[in-house]
Amino acid sequence: MSQIHSKFSSPSALRNRAPIANRLRDILPEKGTVLEIASGSGEHVIHFAPLFPNLTWQPSDPSPEARASVSAWLDETASATIMPPLDIDTTSDIWPIDRADAMIAINMIHISPWAATEGLFRGASRLLTSGAPVVLYGPYRQDGRVLVDSNAAFDASLRARNPEWGIRKLEDVASLAADFGFALESVTDMPANNLCVAFRRR
């Protein structure tokens, strides 16, 4: 990830944001507020906003550096449908937002403790009403599918950096989601051995 002043640029975000946007077209509501968890550099949300002009986008990240990057990108794009980034740590029960119509989290689940995923669905259960989606993107383990070598190496590197990180089993995530009232709707293969996983609030 390169840095120019407070603005970051993530090569992976630049690669995956177009395929993710294409998938979001079939999942997101026509209007309302989309809360992005773990916005990172901000390059996803600034790409999505003009493609979905009837949606309001609310980025968030627990990292001050990431929020500064999002703000720097917003200053450059001057989008009227992207709100200033919020400080949201999913492991906290206090979020500075009380409702949303959809939630997305890109490349978060594997680079955070399991408690962060638990907090994500706990928060989603508070904010989202029946029929609202939660969309996750990233690499996953799946029963009956061999983990490709590149993802196995990635998983090992993640766990070496932090034993609480690592590529999760999709079945574990789906079970957790169900505990908080979300049904697994779709699992879509994406480039670079990633998945786009959509859940719906019951």
Task: Walk me through this protein's architecture.
- The structure is a single chain.
- With 202 residues, this protein is an alpha/beta fold.
- It is built from 6 helices and 8 strands.
- Strands 4-3-5-6-8-7 form a 6-stranded mixed β-sheet, sandwiched between helices.
- α1 packs parallel to α2 (43-51).
Topology:
Elements: E1 2-4, E2 7-9, H1 11-24, E3 32-37, H2 43-51, E4 55-58, H3 64-77, E5 102-106, H4 114-127, E6 133-138, H5 149-161, H6 170-179, E7 182-190, E8 194-201
Parallel strand pairs: 3-4, 3-5, 5-6
Antiparallel strand pairs: 1-2, 6-8, 7-8
Helix pairs in contact: 1-2
Keyword list:
202 residues, alpha/beta, 6-stranded mixed β-sheet, 37% helix
Radius of gyration of CA atoms, rounded to a whole number: 16 Å
Which regions contain 5 or more consecutive residues with pLDDT less than 50? Answer: none
Largest sheet: 6 strands, mixed
CA-CA gap between termini: 38 Å
User: Based on CA inertia axes, which overall geometry fits?
Assistant: globular
The assigned structural class equals alpha/beta
**Separate helix tally:** 6
Q: Write the H/E string, N to C.
A: EEHEHEHEHEHHEE
Overall mean pLDDT stands at 95
Please provide the count of β strands. Answer: 8
Spatially, the strands of the biggest sheet line up as: 4-3-5-6-8-7
Q: How much of the sequence is in beta strands?
A: 15-25%
Helix content: 25-40%
